[in-house]
Write a structure and sequence with these properties.
Structural class: mainly alpha
Shape: globular
Number of helices: 13
Order of helices and strands: HHHHHHHHHHHHH
Number of strands: 0
Radius of gyration: 21 Å
Low-confidence stretches: none
Largest sheet: none
Length: about 350
């Protein structure tokens, strides 16, 4: 079935306008062209972030003028987004495709492919949204933040407050809360979480692996709610000398739970899921050292930057005063050099298919 490009994104954007007007949270615009521009504004059209009418429509109707800070921030986002997409995501894609296309894979190959895909899909998707946000800033528009260091999440709820924020908040406000949210007791809350995540999986496409991925994340959210009181007690005990090890342990566990979800997301069939899950019982069997080292080299710059972002609390860390002008020039020169001269074979954006 041939569908218009970006249909799932601008459908959600149009739905948010219709629902908010119906609920009385937003006044209907009198200009069809303002509404048309808000829904089909080109930077976010094909892969988000999903814009609410209350945010973008107000900017469409107001007078705009890009400030110096917006231009600087926009150029930063564009350069960093291109690097993540062209160098990292496209560089990891051949490794992921090769292993997921194989008929008999080892535990080491599966683990390598899952790690590679975790960073491929993140750099591919967040790279696009960085570019979209940057282009919008150059024209005086502000898009919502869509990613907030998702692999620094320490539990399933935290992950969905960091990954594809515009989608997860849309599902929360227009699906989970109308279903009843957490107002009807534990059983109904768990039902609402499962329905929301399963439908969120179906949003990515009419395929059973997406349903399995949504169901898996729903189970993670339900499980986290069940064990949260015990985790909070352990966290209180660990706030002393064990604070850092406890944080790193939670981060390690959540990252690997997320990675297994990406296996469900990327696999072509349930048979492949079963085979790869089976070999993961021996994750160090026949590790492809050359592939794993390439994954580490490609991911290292992103990990290093994100550690700095996490430690400083600033996602736009390059604007920090502690970094001299020469350092900023060297950083962006290296980004552009790598993107122009060392970019991998071009790959279609992963989220263009949704």
């Amino acid at each position: 079935m041939i569908l218009p490009i970006g249909i799932s994104f601008y459908t959600f954007q149009a739905l948010s306008y219709t629902i908010d007007v119906y609920r009385g949270k937003l006044h209907a615009t009198k200009s069809f062209w303002d509404f048309f521009l808000a829904v089909l504004f080109f930077p976010h059209l094909v892969a988000g972030p999903i814009q609410r009418a209350a945010n973008l429509l107000a900017q469409v109707t107001a007078r705009r003028k890009a400030s110096y800070d917006q231009v600087v921030d926009g150029l930063h986002l564009i350069a960093w987004g291109f690097f993540k997409k062209v160098v990292v995501a496209d560089g990891l894609a051949p490794i992921v495709n090769q292993i997921f296309s194989g008929s008999h894979v080892t535990g080491g190959e599966t683990l390598t492919a899952v790690y590679a895909f975790a960073f491929q899909i993140y750099c591919d998707f967040s790279g696009y949204t960085d570019i979209a946000r940057g282009v919008a800033k150059l024209m005086g528009f502000e898009f919502v933040l869509n990613f907030k260091l998702p692999y620094f999440a320490t539990n399933p709820s935290d992950f969905w407050q960091r990954w594809h924020i515009s989608l997860s908040s849309w599902l929360r406000d227009y699906l989970y809360i109308p279903l009843g949210g957490n107002r009807g007791g534990s059983l109904l809350t768990h039902r609402n979480l499962m329905l929301t995540m399963i439908l969120g999986g179906l949003w990515h496409g009419a395929a059973w692996n997406f349903v399995a991925w949504g169901c898996y994340h729903g189970l993670l959210l339900v499980g986290h709610r069940l064990v949260q009181p015990a985790l909070e007690r352990v966290t209180q005990v660990a706030l002393g000398i064990w604070r850092t090890p406890w944080f790193l342990l939670r981060l390690f566990i959540m990252f690997h739970l997320t990675c297994y979800g990406w296996l469900l997301f990327r696999a072509k069939s349930f048979a492949q899921i079963a085979d790869m899950t089976g070999v993961l019982t021996h994750p160090l069997a026949a590790v492809p050292a050359d592939m794993l080292s390439r994954v580490a080299v490609l991911c290292a710059p992103v990990i290093l930057v994100q550690i700095i972002q996490y430690r400083t609390g600033r996602l736009e860390f390059m604007r920090n005063a502690w970094l001299p002008l020469a350092g900023k020039v060297a950083f962006y020169s290296a980004l552009l050099y790598c993107a122009v001269f060392h970019g991998a074979t071009p790959q279609a954006f992963v989220y263009f298919q949704f």
